[in-house]
Every structure is written in C-alpha cells, then in structure tokens.
Amino acid sequence: VNPHSMRALVFQMPGTARHDREMAIQAKRNLSKTTDPVERLRLKCLARGSAGIKGLGRIFRIMDDDNSRTLDFKEFVKGLNDYAMMIDKEEAQEIFRIFDKDGSGTIDFDEFLVTLRPPMSNARKEIIMQAFRKLDKTGDGVITIEDLRGVYNAKHHPKYQNGDWTEDQVFRAFLDNFDSPYDKDGKVTTEEFMNYYAGVSASIDTDVYFIIMMKNAWKL
C-alpha cells in the first residue's frame, strides 16, 4: 500500500467523520417525522453516529450474565437506560412486543440488533463482506492487529513517523474506528463491521455510490 493510500485509509476511514456527521444530522431530523417505535429507536442510535447501534448491542451483551443471548423486559429497559436512551415505558413495551414474536417474555438480542440495523440491499452487504474478507487475513471471522500486519504498512502513518505511536498503536487506532465506542477490545467481528457499515450506509442514498466508495476505500 503506498503512503498516500495508507494515510487516506487511516484518516478518512470510509464513512467516518463526514458521513457520520451527515447521518447523525439526518437521523435527528427524521426523528420528528416518524411515529414507528422501532424506527425511532433506530434513529436515536444513528444520531450517535455509525457505532450507535453497535454500542447498544455491547451494553446488552454485558448485561447478559447467563450467556442466554436473550433479554427480558426489565433487562431491556435497563439496557436502554444504561445507554441513556430516553424512551418512555409505553414505547419500550411496544418495541419489546414487536421483537418478542412468540410472546415468550424474552427477546433474542442478535435478532433485535439485525432488525434495528438500517436495512441494506444484498449488493451493499456483499461489498462490505468483500472488504471484511480482505482485512481478515487469517480468515477466522475476526479482524485483529495480526491481520492488519499482513495488509497495511503502518510505517507511513505520520504519528508513527514522528515517534508518537508504535506500529501496533497505528493498527489499534484503525480497528477502534469499527469497535464499539464503549468497549474497545481491538477485535472486530463480522457483525461489528456490518453494523458499522449499516450506519454509514444509512447516509448514502444509492447502491452505486456506496459500492464505489467501498471499492475506492478498500481497493477492491
């Protein structure tokens, strides 16, 4: 990777700053127009940027003490509160009912997050997965610092050049773009990558533009 494209990659991570700002503004604007409770929760998450939905997922995961990957209503409300989502109890009940399809009193939070994610066409999902596979050098479904070593040369990064950061710190900063803002573990799963780009995707109207952006960003 030549120095310029590396620099571009680190500083303009596809869809980071500019798209994030546009998307957050758009989400806040749309909030006043919709009464659909799921759409309102989605927009409230997106108003926090691309990692908004993923951040909520992380909170639910932390709360899931018994690893059942399900939440009851009390846990659901607590998760929303911990994430500072201001939702009244009636609206929370309505959302919970929508997701508790079998009326068991619990919801599957993977299903919840997939439904909360802004819908994407198959063409968009496919290009996102192409980028993921390119980065996931080891092919184990998780992108780590080790994977990046084989794909990018950190030595061109200005902070590496002026001695501020080590090579690993450059890679870590890169991974942090996709990681949850509240629980960065330096590992990016397919789901996190997809959630991140679902956020970016929400601010881009056409598939064609989204695909061109991804191809340019990741040299696909």
Automatic annotation (TrEMBL):
<dbReference type="GO" id="GO:0005509">
    <property type="term" value="F:calcium ion binding"/>
</dbReference>
<dbReference type="InterPro" id="IPR011992">
    <property type="entry name" value="EF-hand-dom_pair"/>
</dbReference>
<keyword id="KW-0106">Calcium</keyword>
<feature type="domain" description="EF-hand">
    <location>
        <begin position="123"/>
        <end position="158"/>
    </location>
</feature>
<keyword id="KW-0677">Repeat</keyword>
<protein>
    <submittedName>
        <fullName>CAPSL protein</fullName>
    </submittedName>
</protein>
<feature type="domain" description="EF-hand">
    <location>
        <begin position="87"/>
        <end position="122"/>
    </location>
</feature>
<feature type="domain" description="EF-hand">
    <location>
        <begin position="51"/>
        <end position="86"/>
    </location>
</feature>
<dbReference type="Pfam" id="PF13499">
    <property type="entry name" value="EF-hand_7"/>
</dbReference>
<dbReference type="InterPro" id="IPR018247">
    <property type="entry name" value="EF_Hand_1_Ca_BS"/>
</dbReference>
<dbReference type="InterPro" id="IPR002048">
    <property type="entry name" value="EF_hand_dom"/>
</dbReference>
<dbReference type="InterPro" id="IPR051581">
    <property type="entry name" value="Ca-bind"/>
</dbReference>
<keyword id="KW-0479">Metal-binding</keyword>
